[in-house]
Design a protein that fits this description.
Elements (H helix, E strand, L loop, with lengths): L9 H12 L3 E5 L2 E4 H17 L7 E5 L4 H12 L3 E4 L6 H11 L3 E5 L7 H4 L10 E6 L6 E2 H7 L5 H10 L5 E6 L9 E5 H15 L6 E4 L6 H14 L2 E4 L5 H10 L9 H8 L14 E4 L6 H9 L5 E6 L9 E2 L6 H6 L3 E2 L3 E6 L11 E8 L5 E2 L3 H7 L6 E9 L5 E6 L4 E3 L2 E3 L1 H10 L3 E11 L3 E10 L7 H11 L8 E4 L13 H10 L3
Parallel strand pairs: 3-4, 3-5, 4-8, 5-6, 6-7, 10-11, 12-13, 24-25
Antiparallel strand pairs: 1-2, 8-9, 9-18, 13-14, 14-15, 16-17, 17-19, 19-20, 21-22, 23-24
Length: 526
């Protein structure tokens, strides 16, 4: 029987986990291991430092760093002090990071000295950051900034009792974080969520997926994303799982780590598993400890689910669906769902959340017909920070979040996400859903990655263009891809252009960045 947390704020959750799980390992990162008790103490020490530096409840603090144990300690310290965590994408350049810091009014920034050849502090040189008072490096060195060790030491003047009182004063309705959207269609928007709704959402998530006390959870999904943060280390605190942070996805390194550290839980975007399956030396690694995979973030081909079980050895693969604006969660498959349901749907609404599919006029469509997904419930964001106009576009007067995703709902309430509204294209009057075409090509068993976009066509309005990354040993040509499509899918869905590539562009969350592919297509017309 799993020991269920009763806390309704992140600070209380951390303190409660220390009591429940004690000296069991909470985090293992290289040579550093922190027990649940030690993590709670480290969080309080960080909170004391933030309080001593002048952090007031509601103040924002940016964290711009890869997956490190210090990231988690800093985040807990911020939230224990009543601050609001502002997560920042590690792939951003200086100007993009400065926009987030200015927009959020961040008072402090926790970052890295250097990561993947970029000095984060230097990237901010010359940027106008009127609210930023201090930069702290979580790891590594940079000029004119405070190291994390120095910062923690500076909090010794603040008593632990004061820090504990501040932590216990945080209420479920207080803001816990801003997660900024990816900004592929304009400037990023800051999604505001509260402690209570995050705790409730990921209590439901961890219960449904079956995360267990003692699980060893490798987190390669970035902490700045809901998947790495909320479904990652936050859920692990709820269930007593051990977090093993990982900074950069590299197939052989990941496989070696799964083997050496006996990883049992490894969620990720579909592209991560596709890359692992395509690795020629996969069979040389002992990955038999793998038990649970949770995937989503992109449509998941049936063939991929099958191979995750047969070739990667996962006992359980669960698919789900959510957006940053829904705390990262809206629907999920369940443990007792049949394999076909898990492979072909993203599940049904989580408890006490409503999900419907509607037509362009906002009327619910009949079951089995495609419509836009709307979501309503405790998991919906408070608002976009300082952007009422965009908030009103996203959430209507009745509290429904308009997701912009297209899905078909069956009679059981299970949804199959077919595509983004913006990704759908119309060819000769027919609606074409790229994910459907991608799924067919994956099913051929020849490709490690596939992406389809719509491109302008004088006669048809739009036609499909497909980008494929072949599996090892496969040598497709554009003509052979098109010929296969003509044999296996409807004529109007057959792509007119094909590019064979070594890899597809992805963001830090593992999603294929289709706007990059559209730019490529526009710059290199047939």
């Amino acid at each position: 029987m799993e020991r269920q947390p009763m806390e309704k704020t992140i600070p209380r959750l951390v303190l409660g986990a220390a009591d429940r799980f004690g000296d069991a390992p909470a985090i293992e990162d290289g040579d550093t291991t922190l027990s649940f008790r030690a993590l709670s103490e480290a969080g309080l020490s960080a909170s004391r430092a933030f309080i001593g530096a002048g952090l007031e409840p509601g103040d924002r603090v940016g964290v711009w760093a890869p997956n490190l144990y210090e990231w988690i300690v800093a985040a807990i310290g911020i939230q224990m002090a009543g601050g609001v965590l502002v997560t920042m994408n590690t792939r951003m350049k200086g100007g993009e990071a400065a926009y987030i810091l200015r927009k959020s009014g961040a008072k402090f920034l926790c970052t890295m000295g250097e990561f993947l050849g970029s000095n984060y502090v230097e990237m901010l040189d010359g940027e106008d950051l009127p609210d930023l008072e201090r930069i702290i490096t979580l790891r590594g060195e940079a000029r004119n900034v405070t190291s994390f060790d120095e910062f923690i030491a500076s909090g010794e003047s603040v008593s632990e009792d004061i820090a504990r009182e501040r932590a216990l004063a945080v209420k479920p309705e207080d803001l816990s974080d801003f997660l900024f959207t990816s900004g592929t269609t304009g400037n990023p928007k800051g999604v505001m969520t509260c402690h209570g709704q995050n705790i409730r959402s990921f209590m439901a998530w961890s219960e449904v997926v079956g995360l267990r006390e003692g699980d060893r959870y490798l987190i390669v999904m970035p902490f700045f994303h809901s998947f790495g943060y909320k479904a990652g280390w936050l859920a692990s605190l709820m269930r007593g799982a051990t977090v093993l942070p990982h900074q950069v996805f590299d197939v052989p390194v990941i496989l070696e780590r799964i083997a050496a550290d006996r990883i049992s839980v490894f969620p990720g975007a579909p592209t991560i598993y596709q890359s692992m399956l395509a690795y020629p030396d996969l069979a040389s690694f002992d990955i038999s400890a793998l038990r649970l995979a949770v995937t989503g973030a992109a449509p998941t081909p049936v063939e991929l689910i099958r191979r995750m079980k047969s070739d990667l050895g996962f006992e359980t693969v669960i698919t789900g669906y959510g957006l940053t604006e829904s705390c990262g969660i809206a629907t999920m498959c369940r443990f007792d769902d049949d394999p076909e349901t898990i492979a072909t749907t993203s599940g049904r609404a989580i408890p006490d959340v409503e999900v419907v599919c509607v037509d362009p006029e906002g009327k619910e469509v009949p079951r089995g017909e495609p419509g836009e997904v709307w979501v309503r419930g405790y998991n919906i964001m408070q608002a976009y920070f300082d952007d009422q106009e965009e908030t009103d576009k996203a959430i209507d007067a009745d509290g429904w979040l308009h997701t912009g995703d297209i899905a078909v709902m069956d009679d059981r309430g299970y949804v199959k996400i077919t595509d983004r509204i913006k990704d759908m294209y119309i060819s000769g009057g027919f609606n074409c859903y790229p994910a459907e075409i991608e799924g067919a090509l994956y099913g051929s068993g020849n490709y490690a990655q596939v992406a389809v976009i719509g491109i302008p066509d004088e006669r048809m309005g739009e036609v499909g263009m497909v980008f494929v990354v072949p599996l090892e040993g496969e040598s497709p040509t554009p003509d052979s891809v098109i010929a296969w499509c003509r044999e296996n899918i409807s004529n109007y869905k057959v792509p007119r252009r094909v590019e064979v590539m070594e890899e597809l562009p992805t963001n830090a969350s593992g999603k294929v960045t289709k706007f990059v592919l559209r730019d490529y297509a526009a710059a290199s017309p047939a």
